[in-house]
Amino acid sequence: MVILIDPDDDGYPVGLRDLEDPPPVHVIGHLRQASGVAVVGTRRCTRYGTGLANAFGSAIANAGWTTVSGLARGIDGHAHQGCLTSRGHAVAVLGSGVDVCYPAQHRELYDTIVREGGAIVSEYPPGTPPDRWRFPARNRLIAAMSVAVVVVEAAEQGGALITARLAAEIGRPVFVVPGDVDRAASAGCNRLLKDGAHPVLGPADLIDELGLIIGPPQTTPPAVGSPLPISGVPVEDLPDLWGVSAREALIRVGLMEIRGEARKEGGMVFPN
User: Fold this and answer.
1) Buried b / exposed e along 141-158 (16+ C-beta atoms within 10 A)
2) What pTM value is reported for the model?
3) Distance separating alpha carbons of residues 65 and 25, to the nearest angstrom
4) Between the chain's N and C termini, which has fewer beta carbons within 10 Å?
């Protein structure tokens, strides 16, 4: 069921009122007034970026905060997936009507967000197609609904940089993952860092930084049940060691970093 929420309504997302033109929003699912953290980035991401997007989404969920993104291919979708893996609250903001899943290949992800208690949000009426010109306006909602924006990977032009600029304009801190200087998917991130954005070096670092803005995490992350050998192990060997996918291994390491149980050094993961 689609619900229309006006700016004067009690259930209206508080952050959207910081916009000069707060629009009515259409919602499928359940919005919370909990702190939201946006995780955004390029559709043409690398394995490095997808792993971090998953880990950030999971870490945000385990801290009790909402993960906000745009359901797009690449970083957005992986941030949502990481959030859902940790049974967190995910909000997808669309550049189409809330009943129009775009991209179509994310239909299962769309349905899972709603089924697991999250929300699909759009300022556009149901049935509105995903025209390209609608997405920059969508990005201002992502920025405003979040207390901070995390850019994982971004090219020199694209929606993630628009979201970062809009976030800065309304006073939201922007955190950025550094990348190789010759990697196209990191060119926008490195430019943001040069211009004064806050670097973030992993899930534990992000939670520490956000704690200064939002307050301490609201929940205690569950035990992952995957102890490390006392001598440590290469990151790439973790999936075989634990019998899980590479994505799940990164999520588990992120949780262990958050809890202070592990640290990463030189491509190795060591127990604390």
Assistant:
1) bbbbbbbbbbbbbbbeeb
2) 0.79
3) 21
4) N
